[in-house]
Protein 1
Amino acid sequence: MKQILGIICSPRKLGNNEIAVKEISRRISEHHALKLLRLSDFNLRLCKGCYLCLFKNHCVLKDDLPVIIDAFCQADAFIVSAPAYCLGANASLKVLADRVLAFSGHVKEIWGKPAVGISVAGLEGKEGFTKLNVDNFMRLFLMNVKASEIIYAALPGEIIIKEGNLSILDRLATALTGDVIEPAEPRCPLCKGDTFRFLGDNRVRCMLCSNEGIVEASDSGVRIHAQRSSHELFLSEQDAMDHGQWLAGMKSKYQDNKTDLKAVTAPYKEIGEWIKPEKREKI
Ligand SMILES: Cc1cc2nc3c(=O)[nH]c(=O)nc-3n(C[C@H](O)[C@H](O)[C@H](O)COP(=O)(O)O)c2cc1C
């Protein structure tokens, strides 16, 4: 492992997320360089949903994304760390996740690199869906998720001094260069996700890979059974490539149906009064 990229989704300098990433790096005996990205340092615009990146092989928004794509391609492994903000991960993680289509031309360069995730929450039990956000991020960017943990720490530095935290960081360090740590059952048999929506009649949907499954409770515990769907997003490298192709194919579907679609949308154009910012930046 030559280069580990720490992706820090907290704007707070020398806060718990930054320290967590650095402490994990310190605990990895294998020689490596630690590169760090604090997402809030970057000018990252919101994806505008134009899909042009699928055809031009780069995003048309003029911002710092190319630096980040380059860092992802150069890295051999990732540590992704995000603080809970309002029961989910800090928004910088989602802003970058939404730009994932601009990485489509780099699937082969980024596929399957080992990664560990950290979700830091200030209040015990109040992490909300932060871990789901972090896991989703690692899957979207086609990482080989070795482990993902929630750690509680509020004040900057508590990540180190709060009892039990160092052993979690140690586990993550070991996992990054070693074997996968499977989340406890019940977990999704397809993606190892541990968050589910209950659909009724013992059916659940995994909130990570979005596949539907059945919950089975027995004396040995609760298990989820699920099967791949016909359209997967990231379970294999081929799935990721196929999904990219499917997205690109939507262009011709749009061209074929453009007239009908315009007829549906046109009547909505003038409804309502838009409130606009005083000075609109041109994108
Ligand atoms: C705006 C904001 C919202 C937060 N929301 C939550 C939350 O929903 N749940 C929680 O447990 N902690 C919450 N926290 C606390 C942070 O997750 C916690 O302090 C964390 O250690 C910050 O990481 P950092 O030191 O790397 O910035 C919030 C902090 C801020 C600033």
Protein 2
Amino acid sequence: MTTAKTLALSAHNLTRALQLGEQQIEIFSAIDFAVAAGQSCAILGASGSGKTTLLGVLAGMDPPDTGVVDVKWGDQTFNIYEHDEDWRAALRGKMMGFVFQNFQLIPDMTALDNVLLPLQLLNNGDEAVAKQWLHKVGLGERLNHYPRQLSGGEQQRVALARAFAHEPALLLADEPTGSLDAKTASMIMDLLFDLHRSTHSTMVLVTHDRQLAARCDTIFELDTNE
Ligand SMILES: Nc1ncnc2c1ncn2[C@@H]1O[C@H](COP(=O)(O)OP(=O)(O)O)[C@@H](O)[C@H]1O
Ligand SMILES: [Mg+2]
């Protein structure tokens, strides 16, 4: 688990607006963002400040109205929006892992199959690898349980195993403890930072919690537009 990961992310002059009927709503403008290879960066801001939108732009899911997002991989740099959605989807599948506030497990699949699915999309899917990751997050005895049979904290552990199983160079987490009680949240955060460090991945963590953000190497703060 010590494959060197060398993905750095930088973005320049990002602007994103929404057209709602006649109204144009600016979510953010002229943003410069960067996270160095192997480091963690928190995107901090109040609810509605545009954190999730920014994460989607950085992950290649949502083209910005202005600006560029560069992924630096080894000595190569890719301006990701110069490539089409298929290319970006392939980049995400191979190099990125996602963790969400609401876990987003597939309800009619077992814990094992949830972790196995992205591995199958990427290659043949090695069941032993999926099992190993579930053991690593402390769920080795729950492989065949469905999400509804697991607590919120356990579901987020499955989601962490799923996000890390292909050893992504970039881990993107959007309020990953937002649905959990304080004690469970703290355990999930410890696990997330452990996995980020042990896999040498670069991490972007979205949160509204300043204390949590302070655990990251750097903080990028979004203002609320009023
Ligand atoms: N699809 C959408 N339709 C309408 N408004 C949206 C949409 N997506 C985001 N917004 C608005 O954009 C702003 C930023 O949203 P979001 O990125 O989800 O913020 P955060 O994650 O910080 O809570 C909010 O005011 C939100 O209501
Ligand atoms: Mg959000």
